[in-house]
Design brief:
13 strands; alpha/beta; seven-stranded mixed β-sheet; 409 residues; six-stranded antiparallel β-sheet; binds pyridoxal-5'-phosphate; globular; 11 helices
Length: 409
């Protein structure tokens, strides 16, 4: 059949799933709208500020709105946190002291955290005498007995990466997170549980902080920036912990009393307001992509029945050339830099070549349609984002056309 017809048939089959996503987006839109209304957001909140930024109402109100959305006592949101990695780093350095141990219970944290935790000669946690242990997931479940064994007197922070990131595994559900946190708290109620929430925001009606997490951290280049925030990160959670961390964001003597932003805050507010819909589109597009490839016999994640906890689609292509070809197609149908041809290259921090496509308005923003993959067996394509559902649909059509020609079975 024609590719267009093939995609239309999949869309019809996914209508129930799309309704499920629309319902989540509606719920989150109301939550965000109410947070804006409860904080009386007006034009003055978008103002540019300079210098120290004392009483910067745009910054302070944005923090309050995030705290309301995540149902936490406090929040740090700032363009001065340049990305998710920076926010995660600051949070870890705020929470951990010499002699403490960090325990990851979802296997290896996201790639960019490796050097933060165990880097040599670069001011990593390890160099400050903070030790690190890791418990692997069992398939997509937490390994409770290994977690219990790994927790010791030194364990101060337990780390959970919610998204699959660039691992070929399921994302972790909020039910799993809630269960494992209560398990950890029965072992030692003083352990701080911190969630890497990158890619997870607004994929459900609630956030990990409503399921027992003490701290959640994320990137404004992803879901919650809504594709409009020009940069930034956030850290939300218990006030006593956020206060400690805010001393690391700026200085222990200043905390979040300072920090100006001469470009103003409009796009942070507007991006947050758009984020529930943008995430909804990305989730629908992700399922479309996954289903179109699954029906052609490829192993994909999320599986057809998986409820979403992140916006990533992974397709196991088993072929180097196909991987590179599809990355090139996605770049070529991007609104920005469509004339650029991505090539595999050796990126710092990776042990193999990586290929990336990001024809995005905000540089590298992966809430926009983008893909990136380590170029190694089994040649898995990781695609994510899309500001509009229609753009992702066009991408799916063009990828299928490139690979299968005009007709498909
Ligand atoms: C993207 C990402 C990060 C890092 O965020 P940046 O904004 O790219 O620094 C951390 N963890 C996960 C799971 C991510 O997807």
């Amino acid at each position: 059949m024609e590719i267009i017809e093939y995609v239309k048939k999949i869309e019809d089959k996914l209508s129930g799933y799309y309704e499920y996503i629309n319902d989540i987006a509606l719920y989150n839109q109301r939550k965000v709208l109410n947070a804006f209304r409860n904080n009386n957001v007006s034009y003055r909140h978008f103002s540019q500020t300079t210098g120290y930024g004392y009483d910067d109402i745009g910054r302070d109100t944005l923090c309050k709105i995030y705290a309301e959305i995540f149902k936490t006592e406090a929040a740090i949101v700032s363009p001065l946190l340049c990305c998710g990695t920076h926010a995660l780093t600051v949070a870890l350095f705020g929470l951990l002291k010499t002699g403490d141990e960090l325990l990851s219970i979802s296997g290896k944290p996201y790639d960019t955290l490796n050097e933060v935790i165990i880097g040599k000669g670069n001011g990593s946690l390890e160099e400050y005498g903070i030790t690190y242990k890791q418990v692997e997931l069992c398939g997509s479940s937490f390994n409770k007995s290994a977690i219990k064994e790994a927790i010791c007197d030194k364990t101060k922070v337990v780390f959970i990466g919610r998204s699959r990131g660039y691992e070929f595994r399921d994302s972790i559900s909020l039910e799993q997170i809630e269960e494992v946190i209560s398990f950890i708290k029965t072992i030692n109620c003083n352990i701080v549980v911190m969630i890497d929430n990158c890619y997870g925001e607004f994929t459900n009606k609630s956030e990990p902080t409503e399921h027992g997490a003490d701290i959640a951290v994320g990137s404004l280049n992803k879901n919650i920036g809504g594709g409009l925030a020009p940069c930034g990160g956030y850290i939300v959670g218990k006030k006593i912990l956020i206060d400690r961390i805010s001393g690391r964001v700026t200085s222990p003597s200043l905390g979040m009393e300072v920090g100006s932003y001469a470009a103003g805050y409009l796009s942070f507010y507007q991006g947050l307001f758009s984020a529930p819909t943008v995430v909804g589109s990305a989730l629908k597009g992700s399922k479309l992509f996954a289903t179109a490839y699954s029906n052609q016999g490829y192993e994909v994640l999320p599986t057809i029945s998986e409820k979403p906890n992140d916006i990533i689609t992974a397709v196991k292509l088993n072929d180097r050339d196909t991987l590179i070809k599809l990355c090139k197609i996605i770049q070529s149908i991007s609104p920005i830099d469509s004339n650029v041809t991505p090539e595999p290259w050796s990126m710092p921090g990776y042990d193999c070549e990586v290929i990336m496509s990001a024809g995005t308005f905000i540089q590298g923003a992966s809430i926009e349609l983008s893909c990136d993959s380590p170029v190694r067996e089994p040649y898995i394509l990781y695609v994510q984002g899309g500001l509009t559902y229609e753009h992702i649909k066009i991408a799916v059509i063009e990828c299928l056309k490139e690979q299968f020609g005009d007709k498909i079975r």
